[in-house]
UniProtKB/TrEMBL annotation:
It is found in: Cytoplasm, Cytoskeleton. GO terms for biological process: intraciliary retrograde transport; motile cilium assembly. This is Dynein light chain. Belongs to the dynein light chain family. Residues 1-26 are annotated as: Disordered. SMART domains: Dynein_light. One of its GO terms (cellular component) is cilium. It comes from Holothuria leucospilota (Black long sea cucumber). Residues 1-20 have a biased composition (Low complexity).
Length: 121
């Protein structure tokens, strides 16, 4: 089975004055949540999957304080709900260049912490 793929390059960097980032793609969307403002920087997910990503991210930030634990929770839940081969990166200062299956990508911020979630493989 062949999957359509897309490649994106991102860099997440937090500065004392807020977040700066390089991105290619769609307009931002802010969502208020119990963990603070969640800003969707870019996504090609639709409907229920996109809402799952936002909800699971909020849930992970409520349950965990360590970034690797937040990433593990989001990844495991997406594997369970939407099939295997999801990857999740959480942090304040990193670069990325990823190829993902079309319709399976979201890049968002919770306050000043970036979350990159995508399916590949």
């Amino acid at each position: 089975m062949s999957h359509s793929t897309t490649t994106y390059s991102y860099s997440a960097k937090t500065t004392s004055g807020g977040s700066s980032f390089d991105r290619f793609g769609t307009a931002e969307k802010d969502v208020n949540s119990s963990v603070g403002k969640i800003t969707v920087k870019n996504s090609d997910m639709e409907g229920e999957m996109k809402q799952d990503a936002i909800d699971l991210t909020e849930d992970a930030f409520k349950q965990f304080t360590v970034e690797k634990d937040i990433a593990a929770h989001i990844k495991k839940e997406f594997d369970r709900k939407h099939g295997n081969s999801w990857h999740c990166i959480v942090g304040r200062n990193y670069g990325s260049y990823v190829t993902h299956e079309t319709g399976h990508f979201i890049y968002l911020y919770v306050k000043q912490v970036a979350v990159l979630l995508f399916k590949s493989g």
